[in-house]
Structure formats: C-alpha cells, structure tokens
Amino acid sequence: xxxxxxxxxxxxxxxxxxxxxxxxxxxxxxxxxxxxxxxxxxxxxxxxxxxxxxxxxxxxxxxxxxxxxxxxxxxxxxxxxxxxxxxxxxxxxxxxxxxxxxxxxxxxxxxxxxxxxxxxxxxxxxxxxxxxxxxxxxxxxxxxxxxxxxxxxxxxxxxxxxxxxxxxxxxxxxxxxxxxxxxxxxxxxxxxxxxxxxxxxxxxxxxxxxxxxxxxxxxxxxxxxxxxxxxxxxxxxxxxxxxxxxxxxxxxxxxxxxxxxxxxxxxxxxxxxxxxxxxxxxxxxxxxxxxxxxxxxxxxxxxxxxxxxxxxxxxxxxxxxxxxxxxxxxxxxxxxxxxxxxxxxxxxxxxxxxxxxxxxxxxxxxxxxxxxxxxxxxxxxxxxxxxxxxxxxxxxxxxxxxxxxxxxxxxxxxxxxxxxxxxxxxxxxxxxxxxxxxxxxxxxxxxxxxxxxxxxxxxxxxxxxxxxxxxxxxxxxxxxxxxxxxxxxxxxxxxxxxxxxxxxxxxxxxxx
Amino acid sequence: xxxxxxxxxxxxxxxxxxxxxxxxxxxxxxxxxxxxxxxxxxxxxxxxxxxxxxxxxxxxxxxxxxxxxxxxxxxxxxxxxxxxxxxxxxxxxxxxxxxxxxxxxxxxxxxxxxxxxxxxxxxxxxxxxxxxxxxxxxxxxxxxxxxxxxxxxxxxxxxxxxxxxxxxxxxxxxxxxxxxxxxxxxxxxxxxxxxxxxxxxxxxxxxxxxxxxxxxxxxxxxxxxxxxxxxxxxxxx
Lengths: 512, 237
Known about the structure:
The structure holds 2 protein chains of 2 kinds. Helices cover about 55% and strands about 15% of the residues of chain A. Chain A is an alpha+beta fold. Chain A has 3 domains: about 10-135, no CATH class; about 145-265, GAF domain (Beta-Lactamase); about 355-500, Heat Shock Protein 90. In chain A, strands 2-1-5-4-3 form a 5-stranded antiparallel beta sheet, with helices on both faces. Chain A has a 5-stranded mixed beta sheet with strand order 7-9-10-12-11. The model of chain A is unreliable at about 1-15 (pLDDT under 50). By secondary structure, chain B is α/β, with parallel strands linked by helices. Chain B folds into 2 domains: about 5-125, 3-Layer(aba) Sandwich (Rossmann fold); about 130-235, Winged helix-like DNA-binding domain superfamily/Winged helix DNA-binding domain (Arc Repressor Mutant, subunit A, Orthogonal Bundle), CATH 1.10.10.10. In chain B, about 40% of the residues lie in helices and about 20% in strands. In chain B, helix 4 links the parallel strand 4 and strand 5. The longest helix of chain B is centred in the middle third of the chain and has 16 residues, at about 110-125.
C-alpha cells in the first residue's frame, strides 16, 4: 500500500514539470493528426479536436496542465489552421471570436474535468483511509498485550503518515527510554528526556529547526499506567495541513488508549482469576496434605510405636530393628510433608508470625529434640552464653528454621562428625549458630542459596527438595531476623547463623 | 502405676487410628470403648463413665472443641486432644477450654500414654494421698513446702516456689503461660511473659543438672511449661 502523500488542499499546488510537458505533447499530437488530414475537413474539426488534449490533461494531471493545454491548443489552432496560416495573426474578426470562445470552453471544461478528478481522488483516498482504519481496529481487537498494541500503532501511523513513528517506552523510574536506532531530532530527544511519565503527561508539539518538520509528542496512557510516548513526524507545510494531521494522529491515539484500557481490565481479570486458582489449589493442597496424608502417616507411626512396645517384638532383635526402620521412614516422610506444607504457606503469603518473648535456648533445644532422629549419626555439641537476652519471635517458626539448618548440617557432613550449636549475644542481638564439618559451600553456591528449590550440582545424590533453606530464610525474615551462611571453603564445613533482635530486659539484673 | 482396668473412651473417626490406640491402651491394661463420631462419643461419655477420654478434633458431625465444651459442662474426666493442627493458639484455646493435654499427629504411643497417666494421676489424686510430688530426682512436698533434689534440700524464692508448685500439681501435664502468669503474679504483670521466662531460667538453674538442657522443667513452645513426671518420660523425649 502506498502512503498517501497528498491532501485535498495540496492538489493545486502540485506543479510538476512532467504533466505540463505531457499535456503539450498531447496538443502536438492532435495538431500533427489534423495537419495530415484534408485542410477543409480539419478546419471543421479544429474546435472539437483540441478539446481532447484539454480534457485528457484535466482528468489526468489537474488544472494547470489543462490550462496550459487550452492555451497551447488555441495557439496551435490559430497558427496552423486559421488564415493566414503559419502566423499568429488573425484576419477575420469572426475567427477571433471563435478562438476566444474555444478558449473559454476549454478552460471551463478543464476546470470541470479537473474538479471531477479531485473528487474521485478524494473518494479513493477516503476509501483507503477507511480501509486502513478498519484494518487497524481489527488489529487493535487482536492485541492482548501492550507491546502488541504499540507495534500495531507504530506500524499504522507510519504507514498512513508516510513518516517514521518513534516510541519511547516508559521506565520504572518515571522517565522515558529513548529508542536506540531510530533517528529522532535532538530537540525531540531533549524534550522527551525532560518529561516525567505520569498519566497526566501533557501532549507537546515542536518544530525541528533544520528540517522545519513538525513533531508531535503524545503520551500513550491507559487509566492506570503510562506505557510510553509516541513521537510522530507529521512533516512541514501550512498550518491547515498540520492541524489536519494532528487531529488524525490524536484520533488514532484515542482509539489506542481505549484499547489499552480494555487490555488493562482484561489483564486484571486474568490476574485475579489466576490468583484465585492458585489460592484454591493451595487450600486444596493443604487440606489434602493435612488430612489425607497425615492420617495414614499417624496410623503408621502410632502402630509402629505400639509394636515397638510389645514384649514379643522387644524379644526379637530382627523384628525390633524392622519396626524401628518403619518409625524412621515415617519420620522422614513426615518431615517432607511438613516442608511442603510450609512451602505452600510461604508462597500463599500465609506466614503470619505470632510474636512472643521466648528463651533462645528453649527454641534451639526444641529444634534439636524434634530433629533427634536425623541427628543420631552426628555428635551434637551445644554452647549457650549465660547472659542470653530473650527474643520476641514466633518460636514455632524459628524452631522450624533451626531444625532445617540442623538437618542440612547433618545431611551435608559425614556421619560421626560434630555439629556445633551455639547461642550468643552481640550488641543486643541473639545469634544462633549451627556449624558442621561437612562439604562446605563454594562462593558460586552461596549466591544461589536463597533461591527456592536450589540444590547444588555437587550433591545430587543426597536426597532433598531444596526447600529447606528457603523456608528457613523466609521464616526468619518474617520474624525480623536474618540468616548468614559462611564457609571457609569447599570441604571445610559450613556455619549458618540466625540473627534475631534481643530483649532490652537483662536477665541478670531482673529479680522477680 | 495404672489402676486396674481404667476405662478409656476413644472419640476418633479414623478406624486405623482407633485400631492402634486400642492396641496400645489394651497393652497397658486399659479397657477401651470406641466412638466414631461426636454423637456416639457424647453418649458413651455419659453412659459408660470412662476414666479418660481421647478426643480427636476433626470429627465428621461436630468439631472436637465443641465436644470438649459439652463434656466439660458436667464432667471433670481427663480429656486429651488429638489433632493434626499444630497451631499454638489452638492448643492454648483447647487447654483453656478444659483439655488436660494435647498430642499432635503423628505421635508415638509412649507419648500419649505418658500424658494419659499424668492426667489420670491428677484426676484420681485426693487430699489424703501423699502430698509429695516426685519428678525424677526432684521431690516437692506440697504441705511443708520443701523441695529436694537428689535428697538435698534446695532453697527457692517465693515466686520460684509458686511456679514449681503449680507445675508440680500438674506434674506430667502442660500448664499454659496464662495460667502461670495469673497464679504467680495474681493480676500484676500478667501480660508480661518476659518475667515468666526469666523466672523459669532462674528455677532451672536450681533444679536442673544442666540448665541449658532442661530435662525436668521443659518448654512447650508457644503454649507453656511442663514438669516431666518420671525419668522414663525424660528418656523418651
């Protein structure tokens, strides 16, 4: 499709040389034909025959070539066919009138014909415009993302205006991102750089000095957000032309902003739907896990514990060790299910700590106690400072975090090695540390530790979900604390430290 | 230790849980009555006069806490709650509503039996019985207010003794923070759990072999404290 350069007001101004030459050529052709004919026959045909090039010029090339053709025809008729022949002089006054009459008729018909041509052209252009607009709105209807919409708009504007359209995307910092490759005049760039992306960002227009082109700047906004800014070169020309094009661009952008709103609403609905689905899934998951999985698990655990206490089993070593194995496996399974439940709690935004003043020693002891089965292969050494302040935390969450870290320490260090647990106070904070003598952590792994489901390539043979540390850090974070992992290097052990803000009441000074 | 043929009522909808509970209790000489829903459970609690009730929270017809309240409205029978919900708030609510103790699923039979025995002991204890509570190496004479550890008398402050007294009268059972705060400070500082934590720390320094690893006065996180009844219990934990 061709860009439509012309506008109705510009039709008269077009004075290309080629149409003028063509109309002269037409006149020459008619003259040549008439010269070849019999002179008397030709004399009768002259007035009619010369109207042909005039009408052709008027319909094909417009009013100026037609006017030229009229004058040239009159001159040619006088020169070649009115006595004295081969002279511009005219003998008979009647013939002067004939020639003038011809000129008037030629000018009038050329005017009419060229107007007809203009009308046709306008109609054709309108049809094309409507077609374009129709196609544009069809494309808009098919836009489901903002970037689709922007590229459709850019495409449409540059096609209809025949000028490049530049899009400046809104950045999160409230400014607009200048495009990379496209050529935008300095004045436009500067103006955009000074603008702030708000929904009330004003429309601007400016003239580029060297080319005298008018540039329009229009924000692309929906109700809730600014998506960017389009800069359109609408060319130079008269004030009327500029107004006409400006109005057109604005009408298109209006359409665009309506579509943006539609996309906004659709996106909001889609987001809400997804959130709801996620929530339902989580609830179902939690309900199912806590009932359908925990009940059989409780039955197995309970039955095994009853078996364990039966004299019959206690007398038989093999039976006893089998029952123990059942208990161990159930404990492991239970831990895994608890992890999944905790993970769904975290992703569901359900960590709502119930803060209460607690003794850090109690928390650590409880964590060691609940993980006792997994720590049997290791030697646990504890060291608690005497003057430990209390901590205002959700003990359950911190206990679970310590438990996860203890489990990791046991998992990633050899059987028989020592896990050192300590609680110290430092400038009012309480630091709970768990150190192992295990595989350690490389600096590369350190960076990925906080990620959900991260598991190092080195330890794919050790069973685990990669959820433990993630859960621990979320739980500690929810209590206003932080976890730091340090390791002197690969194979040289790891220390995990939880820092929690302590109480200002000193246990040493208080006398109940 | 157990009275012969104590009757335990199991109100639990899951047959597989009832099965092992029955086995576990019968092994310890209990006679067992089962109820698979709240209606049956309430009926059995009224007509069979059990000595102990094990009550599951998730019942098909009525929530366990409702059952607890109804039984408590006319009976002091020991009730131990089974639940899969391990929220501390819920535990505290249940204890305040009159439950003697709770056990979170999955649990081992030994744990439930220890709780049951403690609850029964408290239920059957009369004023004429020996007023001395023994918890491992610790003994507390509730009448003379003397506390001995490995036969050595130890000195406690007034508040420390008050704390130990409440725990000793509930030996083997959990006592909530609220209850302790209310009894020890009787209105003043009731909300200040920090003082309770520090008081516990000081008491532990006097009665525990290693105060950093308490084996007698144990913490039930988010809920309260428990004075362990016997050395076996301590070993089991």
